[in-house]
Amino acid sequence: MTLLEVSRMQAFYGRVQVLEDISLSIPDGGAVGILGANGAGKTTTLRAISGAVRSGGDIRFDGKSLRGLRPDQVAARGIAHVPEGRGTFSDLTVRENLRVGAYRRKDAKQVHEDIDYCLDLFPQLQNRVRSNGSALSGGEQQMLAIGRAIMARPRLMLLDEASLGLAPSTAKTVYKAIGRLRQDSGIAMVVVEQNANLAFTLVDSATVLEAGRNVLTGSTAELKGMDEIRRAYLGG
Ligand SMILES: Nc1ncnc2c1ncn2[C@@H]1O[C@H](COP(=O)(O)OP(=O)(O)OP(=O)(O)O)[C@@H](O)[C@H]1O
Ligand SMILES: [Mg+2]
């Protein structure tokens, strides 16, 4: 079953149109990568899905249109956005940040279990549960941002450059954890990445954006075999 179907999506900042024609299809439990140079429209694509920028075209989630919904309403449908720059709360502790992710939930016992799951997935956060967000390293903030999204029990997670600014070993750790999360939970994922090597460890297929359009879409295996992808995104 298709969980998210984006067709002919456009997006605008004020009067400026930055997405021209974006299509994406994600099966339930699937993971799709979005690649592309700086300014190609990757972040805006995620924002348009989340309802944070004005969009045109069609966005359907679980068969229903997301047209006209506010970000909180999109989140309530089961879509969690892990934004570029992470967006964790610097004056809340790690545990409080995780609780914020669960604010819509009434199942206190499972919320507690999910906090334990996040700390098991990201052991680095364990001795930091009482630390303020501001005291975390970039990698720890990224882990916390993903944890906060997990706490919403979403059906779809939108991940924006989870590796940005992290040491290569930390980026790998983060992607390994996301891979485990995918296996454990079956949460579907849209994975925006400049580091295609990392993205390809996680996703089943990917699309390349240029100037607000898809220019190439294929399975991970197909894309890995293409010279232009190897040159532009895989360093060789
Ligand atoms: N708040 C904004 N107001 C106006 N224009 C914006 C805004 N945010 C982004 N843009 C423009 O929209 C286009 C797409 O930007 P977007 O952030 O989606 O790119 P991106 O692919 O995520 O790039 P990066 O790899 O640098 O994160 C760019 O031309 C950018 O300058
Ligand atoms: Mg971006």
UniProtKB/TrEMBL annotation:
<feature type="domain" description="ABC transporter">
    <location>
        <begin position="1"/>
        <end position="236"/>
    </location>
</feature>
<dbReference type="InterPro" id="IPR003439">
    <property type="entry name" value="ABC_transporter-like_ATP-bd"/>
</dbReference>
<dbReference type="InterPro" id="IPR003593">
    <property type="entry name" value="AAA+_ATPase"/>
</dbReference>
<protein>
    <submittedName>
        <fullName>Branched-chain amino acid transport system ATP-binding protein</fullName>
    </submittedName>
</protein>
<keyword id="KW-0067">ATP-binding</keyword>
<dbReference type="GO" id="GO:0005524">
    <property type="term" value="F:ATP binding"/>
</dbReference>
<dbReference type="InterPro" id="IPR052156">
    <property type="entry name" value="BCAA_Transport_ATP-bd_LivF"/>
</dbReference>
<keyword id="KW-0813">Transport</keyword>
<comment type="similarity">
    <text>Belongs to the ABC transporter superfamily.</text>
</comment>
<dbReference type="InterPro" id="IPR017871">
    <property type="entry name" value="ABC_transporter-like_CS"/>
</dbReference>
<dbReference type="InterPro" id="IPR027417">
    <property type="entry name" value="P-loop_NTPase"/>
</dbReference>
<keyword id="KW-0029">Amino-acid transport</keyword>
<keyword id="KW-0547">Nucleotide-binding</keyword>
<dbReference type="Pfam" id="PF00005">
    <property type="entry name" value="ABC_tran"/>
</dbReference>
